[in-house]
Structures are given as structure tokens and as C-alpha cells.
Specification:
The complex is a heterodimer of chains A (about 450) and B (about 180). Chain A is built from twelve helices and 23 strands. Chain A is of the alpha+beta class and about 450 residues long. In chain A, helix 5 packs across helix 11. Chain A has two domains: about 100 residues, Rieske [2Fe-2S] iron-sulphur domain (Rieske Iron-sulfur Protein, 3-layer Sandwich), CATH 2.102.10; about 270 residues, Naphthalene 1,2-dioxygenase Alpha Subunit, Chain A, domain 1 (Alpha-Beta Complex), CATH 3.90.380.10. Chain A is globular, with a radius of gyration of 23 Å. The C terminus of chain A is likely disordered. The N and C termini of chain B lie far apart (about 40 Å). Chain B has a single domain, classed as Nuclear Transport Factor 2, Chain: A (Roll). Classes of the chains: A alpha+beta (about 450), B alpha+beta (about 180). At the A-B interface, strand 14, helix 6, strand 20, helix 9 and helix 10 of A face strand 2 and helix 3 of B. Bound molecules: FE2/S2 (inorganic) cluster and fe (ii) ion. The site of FE2/S2 (inorganic) cluster has 9 residues of chain A, from loops.
């Protein structure tokens, strides 16, 4: 154990009694190395959406932490996630961001793997390996896979509970995200392409920001003064138009002990649809109709209007722009963000077009809002690097002791806490989970596969 | 050739010269942060598009770039949206551009082609250098395809396609114009 972790994480570097978190957790190489093993190798990680690989044989490359994975649908329609890494010398067996193939041939010495991960071809198996290589033991390394309404997660660890247990009481909020605007669990379809870019900050800054940081609104003053909302009025959110005249709670929701988070508005009454896209009849009709259907379908639960949140450890979902953004660690000082955007498959083209234009201009490196977010995270990261600066913890104490359970309504979930307006409750829940996992040494370290192969 | 200047060639050189002057002027405006003046060079119905690039199998390059009007793109917008970007920078509160970047836009390999409707198609390579704050530095290199509409003695950009030679964007943002 390294010197940094002698104090431990829970109530050491992450002090939940005082709300203080050491800056070291963002910048120390040794802590980062431990995260890869203790957080990422154990957690369910988002890899993509089923609509990105609709046909048998379709694949895309995904990422789990620093490592490349193949997310594919085999010829029988089954989903797989494989480490994109040849068992012989580790070369990438798939070199393309997307395609359709029933086999993956390694460029180095030409081992061939099937779309089910089996090692099906080994050159000179007889003359050089003397038929002593047991191909059944040298297939691609495969992760556990779970598709939650088409949103696909994968996990390397057999001991981690199943995905739905892992999700815990975030279920209500993530279900809300997965529902179409009409409140049904219909199909979403990802737009072509994945935003991929680099941000000079630790991966946790994006994750904690999306977890629930309404406090940082002042940093968005510039985008709030122009027209970004597709409603064509000043402001950056469509929902500013939709919801501004309603009585409501602005809520931060955290799920314990899983560390997942959500945020959104809870209206105090059943309100009528608020005309939003007056200049676009098809779009207006679509959302008006969906609104009525959702209200009829969900009853008082339709008063919840989710904004998004973070599923521990590193995927953030955003309602409205319907995005899934993954904060891939890329060394302690860099994050590689991958983000997809989706639209209801059955929506008219006009609706998809409005959503697509909005997301491009809102999130990502060309997005008018996130550009400023990244400036914040980059600078917060730099602020965690200095020898002197690192002696002083970051303050995550806002609203401590004001978290409430079963409030403002009892149907918001079991083990969830809520705070109103701005608070750092969600970040505390997120880092409590992070610290608990970091305190737990891996049960079976990396040697697993070597031992299995030696049997 | 009998030594008299080739009329066709001279006309082409003149046209090319005028396009070059137009782009030099455009770069000057961008690099001196005269963004409102830069907007004046754009047609009101401009399409400004920068797709994402993907790594695909040799020969199967169809779809290497995401589609305009359908897929995700780094930019897929018109003049109104570009005006909003300029307005945002001008607030002095757009922290990703405050302090504002130092940029140098360079263009080369210019090709100019007449279209039947009197407008022009141009192709060039661009190299945009951006530096801001202390050490933040980016190079954006790629291909730019424009449609230029004649406008008095000058031109207006009616369509701009920007093909950046990167799949993972290496910069943290795209707060500058191409
Ligand atoms: S590295 Fe793949 S076959 Fe040798
Ligand atoms: Fe933000």
C-alpha cells in the first residue's frame, strides 16, 4: 500500500464528517493506478447503445477505462463486449471504429477470433504448436454484458452484483431517462457518430459536475445571454421555457450506498403543456401530444422532470438532449470523453432535427455550454496539482446535514436522499462510494488468467 | 504560344488572385478578432459544416465522415447560430475564450473552379494555430471546401465544409472559427 493511502480513503482522503476531500485524489499517479483496479475493473461501465449495432455482425469500438473494447452483435443477434486485445501479444484485433464482421483477425501473427470471441484460427497450429495449444482457453477476454432498455453496460468482475442491483434506487430516475417523451419504454436511436475528445483534467471532474452541481450556474452567464434553446428564446435549456412559471422543487437526488445521482424538477401540481416550439408545427404537435400521453400514463409521477445525473463511476446521462457521456480516465491528468446522443426512433424527422441541432450546440467541444464547463474542470484540476495547493482540501460541505429521505414525496425511491436548489449532497454520495471501493483491496488480483491457463 | 498572353489563363489567374485576397482578408479579420466583420463575409443562408471522422476499413470509406443534416457533427449550422457564437465570445464571460485565443489561420493548395450558376467552388488546406492563456496550444489541420457567391467585387461564403484530420478531437474545445 502506498504512503498516500495509509490514512485510507473513507474519512481519510475523503472526509465525510467534515465534507473535506483531499486534492490528491485527482492528481496522484498512485491513486489513479489504484482506481483502475478498484473502481473501473469492478464497476458496470457504459459501452454503447444497441441501436449503434442494429444488425447481426455489426460492431463498434468502445472503451472501458483506458482499454479498447469491441461491442458487437454476433451472427445470432447476441451482444458481446470483448477486450480488443489479442491473447497472443496484445495487438488490437479490431482496428476500425465500426463495421460488420463475423471474425476478427489479428494483424500481428494472424490468430483469428470469431464474433463470439472464440479462437478459431491459429497459423501453423500443427507444424509450430504441434497441436498442443488448447484454443478453447485462448479466446478473447469477454465482459459481462447487460442491456437496460437498449443502453448497454459491461463489467469485468464476476463478484459485482447484477446490473439492476448495482443500479439500486436510481432505477426510478434512470427509467425516467430511458422513457420516451410520451412516458413509454419505446425505442431510442443513436445519431450516427460519437463525440470523442480530450479534456485536460481528472476524469472525476466531469462525473461530479454532471452528478449535480447547480451551484456552478454563474459560469454559464455567457450562454444564458444568447439564444441556444430550440424554443428560440434566450437561455440554454428548452425547459427554461417549459417550466419557468410552475411551482416546483429543484432537487438533487443521491442514491446510497451505490453513489449514483440524479437532478431535476418536481412540480407541485399537474400543469398544462407549455407551448414551446410555436414556429415549428410538427415539433410542437409532437411534444404536446407526448406530454398529454405521459401525464395520462404516469399520473402524479409525471410531475418529475429529470435533468440528468451520473451513474457511478463514469457515465453521465442528460435528459432533454438525451445523451450518454462517458468520462474515460486517460492518466490522472486527462479525460477522454465519449458521448452519444439519441432521439426517439418513432419521432418525425423534424423533431430529430431539432434535437440534433440542439445537442451539437449545447454539449461537447463545439457546445456553447460545455466549453465553459471544461474551462472550469481544467482549472480545478490544475488547482489540485501544486505542492502548496495540495495541502488544502476541497470543500464539499454545502448543505451537509440537510439531506432528507422520503421528501418531498414518498414515491421518489427507497434509499435516496434529496436536497433542494444547490447543495453538494450528490458529490458527497458519489465520493463516499468512490472511497468505499478504494478501501477494498482486490480479492483476486491480475494473476487470475495466468493461473487458469496453467491448469 | 506566340508570346501574347493567354487570355483564358490570365482570367483564371485574376480570379484565383481575387479568391486569395478574399481568404487573406478573412484570415485577417479572424486573427484580429473582428468577428462581426467576419460574419459580414458569410451569406445569410450559409451552411457551415464540420463532420466527425471515423477510422474505417480501406476501400470501405463510405461513411468515414458523418453526414450533414443527419448525423452528429462538430458543426452543422447556419448564420444565426454563428452569430450566437460571436455574441457569446463578445460577452467577455465566455470563460473558454476569456482571455480570447491568439490564432493564425493559414490556407494553401488553393483550387478554384467555376460553377454553372456563376458561383465558385474552392478547395484548400488549412492550418489553424491557436494558443491561449499560458501553454494551451492546438493545431487544427484539414481540408476546406467552400462555395463562394460573387458579391460586387468580392464574395460571400455560401457553404463551407471543414474536414478536420482528426477522429478523436485533440483539442478540448472548438471555440474558434474555420
Ligand atoms: S499478437 Fe495477435 S497473433 Fe500474435
Ligand atoms: Fe455546466
Amino acid at each position: 500500500m502506498s504512503v498516500d493511502t495509509l490514512a485510507g480513503y473513507t474519512n481519510g482522503l475523503v472526509n465525510l464528517d467534515s465534507g473535506l476531500i483531499s486534492r490528491d485524489i485527482f492528481t496522484r499517479q498512485s491513486i489513479y493506478d489504484e482506481e483502475l483496479e478498484r473502481i473501473f475493473a469492478r464497476s458496470w461501465l457504459f459501452v454503447g447503445h444497441e441501436s449503434q449495432i442494429p444488425e447481426p455482425g455489426d460492431y463498434i469500438l468502445g472503451k472501458m477505462a483506458e482499454e479498447s473494447v469491441i461491442f458487437n452483435r454476433d451472427r445470432h443477434g447476441k451482444l458481446h463486449v470483448f477486450l480488443n486485445n489479442c491473447r497472443h501479444r496484445g495487438m488490437r484485433v479490431c482496428r476500425y471504429d465500426r463495421g460488420n464482421s463475423t471474425k476478427f483477425a489479428c494483424p500481428f501473427h494472424a490468430w483469428v477470433f470469431s464474433d463470439e470471441g472464440k479462437l478459431v484460427g491459429v497459423p501453423k497450429l500443427d507444424s509450430a504448436y504441434h497441436n498442443e495449444l488448447d484454443r478453447s482457453k485462448w479466446g478473447l477476454i469477454e465482459a459481462r454484458v447487460y442491456s437496460y432498455y437498449g443502453y448497454v453496460f459491461a463489467c469485468w468482475d464476476e463478484e459485482t452484483p447484477d446490473f439492476e442491483t448495482y443500479l439500486g434506487d436510481l432505477r426510478f430516475y434512470f427509467d425516467d431517462y430511458c422513457e420516451l417523451p410520451d412516458g413509454t419504454h419505446g425505442e431510442w436511436e443513436a445519431f450516427g457518430g460519437t463525440f470523442k475528445w480530450r479534456v485536460p483534467c481528472n476524469w472525476k471532474f466531469g462525473a461530479e459536475n454532471f452528478a449535480g452541481d447547480y451551484y456552478h450556474n454563474p459560469s454559464h452567464a455567457s450562454v444564458d445571454s444568447i439564444v441556444l434553446s430550440p424554443a428560440g428564446v434566450k437561455g440554454r435549456h428548452t425547459y427554461d421555457t417549459i417550466t419557468r412559471k410552475r411551482e416546483q422543487y429543484l432537487l438533487n437526488i443521491c442514491v446510497t450506498p451505490e453513489g449514483h445521482t440524479s437532478r431535476g424538477q418536481l412540480f407541485k401540481d399537474d400543469y398544462e403543456y407549455m407551448p414551446t416550439y410555436q414556429e415549428m408545427t410538427v415539433v410542437e404537435d409532437y411534444f404536446r401530444d407526448c406530454y398529454a400521453q405521459r401525464q395520462a400514463r404516469l399520473g402524479e409521477k409525471s410531475r418529475w422532470f429529470g435533468h440528468g445525473g451520473t451513474i457511478f463511476p463514469n457515465v453521465s446521462y442528460s435528459n432533454g438532449v438525451q445523451s450518454m457521456g462517458t468520462w474515460h480516465p486517460s492518466g490522472p491528468h486527462e479525460t477522454q470523453v465519449w458521448r452519444i446522443f439519441l432521439a426517439p426512433k418513432s419521432a418525425p424527422d423534424e423533431v430529430k432535427d431539432v434535437l440534433r441541432h440542439y445537442v451539437i450546440r449545447y454539449q461537447g467541444p463545439s457546445g456553447l455550454t460545455e466549453q465553459d464547463d471544461m474551462e472550469n474542470w481544467g482549472s480545478a484540476h490544475e488547482g489540485a496539482r501544486g505542492t502548496i495547493a495540495r495541502r488544502y482540501a476541497y470543500n464539499y460541505g454545502m448543505g451537509m446535514g440537510y439531506e432528507r429521505k422520503g421528501w418531498p414525496v414518498d414515491w421518489l425511491g427507497g434509499d435516496v436522499y434529496a436536497t433542494e436548489d444547490v447543495s453538494e449532497q450528490n458529490q458527497r454520495a458519489y465520493y463516499a462510494r468512490w472511497a468505499a471501493l478504494m478501501d477494498q483491496p482486490p480479492s483476486a488480483p491480475q494473476q487470475r488468467e495466468t493461473a487458469a491457463a496453467a491448469e | 504560344m506566340d508570346g501574347t498572353p493567354d487570355k483564358v489563363l490570365i482570367d483564371r489567374l485574376l480570379l484565383r488572385y481575387r479568391v486569395e485576397q478574399f481568404y487573406i482578408q478573412e484570415a485577417e479579420l479572424l486573427d484580429s478578432r473582428q468577428f462581426h466583420a467576419w460574419l459580414e463575409l458569410l451569406a445569410d443562408d450559409i451552411r457551415y459544416w464540420m463532420p466527425l471522422a471515423r477510422n474505417q476499413e480501406s476501400g470501405k470509406w463510405d461513411g468515414e465522415y458523418t453526414r450533414e443534416g443527419k448525423d452528429l457533427n462538430w458543426f452543422d449550422e447556419g448564420k444565426f447560430e454563428l452569430e450566437q457564437r460571436v455574441k457569446q465570445i463578445m460577452t467577455g464571460l465566455h470563460w473558454a475564450e476569456e482571455p480570447v485565443s491568439r490564432t493564425s489561420h493559414m490556407y494553401s493548395n488553393l483550387q478554384v473552379e467555376d460553377r454553372e450558376d456563376g458561383s465558385l467552388n474552392t478547395r484548400c488546406r488549412f492550418l489553424v494555430y491557436r494558443n491561449r492563456t499560458e501553454t494551451e496550444t492546438d493545431f487544427f489541420v484539414g481540408k476546406r471546401h467552400d462555395t463562394l457567391r460573387r458579391d460586387g467585387d468580392g464574395f460571400k461564403v455560401a457553404a463551407r465544409e471543414i474536414f478536420l484530420d482528426q477522429s478523436v478531437l485533440l483539442a478540448k474545445n472548438l471555440t474558434i472559427f474555420f
